[in-house]
């Protein structure tokens, strides 16, 4: 959970075996380790597990220098924790001594094989349930559509897409009883399911709008069916976006004997989607009165961290936190006092910080600027037809 030191966001990546999950993760982490990014970026991305970081960086360098793809992982559910260490004053002080020294991205990688075939026995069935429980804290889920398989089924894309969505839907149906304690719907659950086209470099003429149209035309009913299954798992099922957001992903440009890792598409949107997209959507759902008490508590908890980080509405936050037992009655206070200010500050943080001397910038200001930079990244992604966010 998020603390008063780190803003923590979770993302879960779902895709069948061979859809590019490992390559995508390696491209994300490895590109952040490039000397130029380390030197010039507003933050440094550090793997909390050094061994994981070394393996991912090794995968990336293998692609970059030897055109070698990383080995596929099978039946292995892994969570990767990355710290985004913000640059600025007091850089040398311990994390615990500084307010909001970092953002944390937790990346959950769910084995594609568990969508495609039955488990081998009770032990594997138990591991599958535990793996899914581990990613319930995710704010965003990426559902990967394999660009190679779309090409293989050109003209009959629905054959592949229906199989993919049916496998995901059926897996969730099988997990339902194990995930719901006494049948009670889940408060914490990935509520934004983004449909992502992996290996998008194989389909250079398909922008995100065309991708959305392809999905809706070929498998609109299946998307609705998946949404129905997910809505049966969560409290406040109106606060759920399934197949309303789309993104193109390419981990590199692949050609015979060469992998050009610098030519990425959508990888740079992973952090903004994890950090900002949920905040935007939570605000929208709160204003539309789609949140019950339990889900509202979660929203207030996230808002508390961000508001404290960027120095907004601290008095309102304190009142809310003191009234957690009466949080339903406090939702109006969130809307009237906290969230409009929070949204406005995130949107205008960049402009407000232009006048701040960089040498005197605090970690609080750096976090505000980073969130604003992420918001801008999402806007640019839409302008380039790489990202398409839900309008509702």
For the largest beta-sheet, the strand count, sense and barrel status come to: 8 strands, mixed
Widest sheet: strand ordering:
2-3-4-1-5-6-7-10
Q: Tell me, what is the CATH class?
A: Alpha Beta
Estimated radius of gyration: 21 Å
| pLDDT < 50 runs, ≥5 residues | 89-99, 309-342, 348-364
> What is the architecture at the second tier of CATH?
3-Layer(aba) Sandwich
> Any idea what the CATH superfamily is called?
P-loop containing nucleotide triphosphate hydrolases
Counted by DSSP, the helix tally is 14
Q: Can you give the helix content as a percent range?
A: 40-55%
Query: What fraction strand?
Result: 15-25%
Provide the succession of SSEs: EHHEHEEHHEHHEHEEEHHHHHHE
> How many domains would you count in the coordinates?
1
The helix-and-strand class reads alpha/beta
Global geometry: globular
Q: What is the fold named in CATH at topology level?
A: Rossmann fold
Please, what is the average pLDDT? 79
Q: State the distance separating the first and last CA atoms.
A: 28 Å
Count of individual beta strands: 10
InterPro entries: DO-GTPase2, P-loop_NTPase
Domain Double-GTPase: 10-204
Protein name: Double-GTPase 2 domain-containing protein
């Amino acid at each position: 959970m998020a603390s008063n030191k780190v803003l923590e966001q979770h993302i879960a990546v779902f895709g069948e075996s061979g859809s590019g999950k490992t390559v995508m993760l390696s491209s994300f982490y490895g590109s952040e380790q490039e000397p130029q990014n380390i030197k010039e970026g507003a933050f440094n991305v550090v793997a909390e597990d050094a061994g994981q970081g070394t393996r991912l960086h090794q995968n990336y360098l293998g692609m970059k220098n030897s055109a070698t793809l990383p080995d596929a992982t099978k039946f292995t559910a892994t969570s990767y924790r990355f710290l985004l260490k913000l640059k600025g004053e007091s850089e040398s002080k311990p994390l615990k001594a500084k307010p909001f020294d970092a953002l944390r991205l937790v990346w959950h990688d769910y084995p594609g094989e568990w969508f495609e075939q039955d488990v081998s026995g009770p032990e594997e069935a138990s591991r599958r349930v535990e793996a899914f429980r581990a990613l319930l804290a995710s704010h965003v889920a990426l559902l990967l559509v394999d660009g190679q398989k779309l090409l293989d089924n050109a003209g009959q894309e629905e054959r592949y897409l229906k199989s993919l969505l049916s496998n995901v839907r059926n897996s969730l149906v099988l997990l339902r009883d194990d995930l719901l304690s006494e049948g009670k719907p889940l408060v914490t659950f990935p509520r934004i399911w983004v449909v992502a086209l992996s290996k998008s470099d194989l389909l250079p003429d398909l922008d995100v709008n065309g991708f959305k149209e392809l999905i809706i035309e070929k498998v609109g009913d299946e998307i609705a069916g998946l949404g129905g299954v997910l809505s049966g798992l969560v409290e406040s099922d109106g606060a759920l976006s399934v197949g309303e957001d789309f993104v193109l992903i390419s981990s590199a440009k692949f050609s015979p004997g060469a992998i050009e890792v610098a030519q990425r598409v959508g990888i740079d949107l992973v952090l903004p989607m994890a950090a900002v997209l949920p905040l935007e959507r939570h605000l929208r759902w709160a204003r539309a009165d789609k949140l019950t008490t339990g889900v509202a508590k979660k929203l207030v908890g996230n808002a508390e961290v961000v508001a404290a980080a960027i120095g907004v509405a601290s008095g309102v936050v304190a009142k809310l936190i003191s009234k957690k037992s009466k949080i339903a009655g406090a939702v109006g206070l969130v809307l009237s006092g906290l969230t409009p200010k929070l949204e406005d500050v995130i949107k205008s943080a960049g402009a407000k910080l232009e006048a701040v001397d960089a040498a005197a910038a605090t970690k609080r200001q750096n976090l505000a600027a980073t969130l604003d930079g992420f918001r801008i990244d999402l806007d640019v992604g839409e302008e380039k037809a790489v990202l398409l966010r839900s309008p509702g």
